[in-house]
Amino acid sequence: MKKYDAIIIGAGHNGITNAAYLAKAGLDVLVVEKNDYIGGGAVSRELHNGFTYSNCSYVCSMMRQAIIRDLDLPKHGMMVIPYPGALAMGENGEVFHSYSNDEVAYNHTRGVSPHDADGLMRLFADLSRYAQVIRKTLMRTPPDPTSFKPRDIKELLFLAKEFWKLGEREIYEYVRFFTMSAADFLDEYLENDLIKAYMAVSGIIGTALGVYSPGSAYILLHHVMGDVDGNLGAWGLARGGMGSISKALEGAAKEYGAEIRTGAPVEKIIVKKGKAVGVALENGEELMSNIVVSNLDAKRTFTKIMDRNDLPEGIYEKANNFKFRGSSGKVNIALSGLPKFKGAAENPFINRSSTYLIGSMKSMEKAYDCWKRGRWSDDPIVETVLPSPWDPTVAPPGQHWMSCFVQYCPAELADGPWTPEKRDAFGATVINKIERYAPGFKELILHTEIRTPHEIEQEVGLTEGNIFQGELTIDQLLFNRPFPGYAQYRMPVKNMYMCGSSTHPGGGVSSACGANAAREILMDLGKVNTVPEDDCYDD
Predict the structure, then answer these.
(1) Distance CA 168, CA 163 (A)
(2) For position 26, which CATH number holds?
(3) Stated pTM of the model
């Protein structure tokens, strides 16, 4: 029987990234994936004739530039198309544009609110400073604050040095920032409710927090510290859909010799004498390896595919208590033509950007209140993106694919389990909201794919449909992710590691978790490191 150097469970983007770097170092690597396709949440599939949906993740910003360069992903087909901004539409027809060009953005905002034109400049400047500190940790292994090992002390000193660079006043503000709600934070810069609502959306994406919930300010920061071509905070579209990123990673991994096997769901991790020695597939086949790396989330790893008796005391409970609280839905729609959003005739930019149908800060909080009661709102927060005007590969000529990200959608309903009828009713609610902003929208619909947290969990394997493999709250960040003592990608069973978004730095299509885990594995095996570490631009 063949024995691999490493078996990686799950061919999501982090799992494939991990495989690429281990294979680059000369290891014999196998990735096993339950689905008959790769990518996990970063996937593109044709579910209607000629239309390619990015079924889950849909825009690109978090992907680490160092990894793109190091694995030469453009050679393997990755191409990101920057788009020129976004806009928010209010309840009474008002529109706010956020342009990628600073001068254009300032002049437009000044026409809406002179105060907020200057306020947004200050806001983005402060967020940029805060982001630079966090960005410098993304491609580094979190230190153990209880350890006296030289490496941990060095990393703690590095963090302290970066923190100190902020200056005395900024340090106070930075610490305060992490405890704030998005609403309270934005109140210090902005007056206009629609502009605040537009900015606040980034503080609630994928999380079970409202705009007034403490901690949502950090979620906002998490979503503005990515970049496209070095433009901090910019977003782009992956040509061919988000699955093209996973396929580019697959190309790099296979070029280095990694093997990827689809249609191979794992039943359990095999543990003998306290060591992970391989995996057993659901078909009964056993595959052996020197190490096992899980790209699944913490709960699925420790409570679904491991025997509780193989775990040290307390680990099962920690994994079971790791917070997910799924809160997002996704609706993909094939259209026979461009929707006619109110105001689109005067400003075609509306159909060529992210469009946030958000109403107001109060309506956003009301949608969150519905989630807390185990139901979805009749007035959900909807972000629509039309990739097809920029990327003709995702829809037939003259037709369009619309991606709709929806907040909030509960993983568990108060009136019982999700059913196909409830799923369709949720989708109808989303479509009805779009119809209010774009009259005649329903007449354009050719096909609809509706994903609640239930569908996301069943197909992709994200527990409770949480898009980050666990909430990005302060108690689940850095050396607390997934839980204290195990944040350095090594797990409590010897020769076992984790590389998914349940580890630092968390969710988003970044590849950082997979790369960081590979660095630690190579160190433990005494191999030369093949993973880039620092991915930050100079201040």
Answers:
(1) 10
(2) 3.50.50.60
(3) 0.95
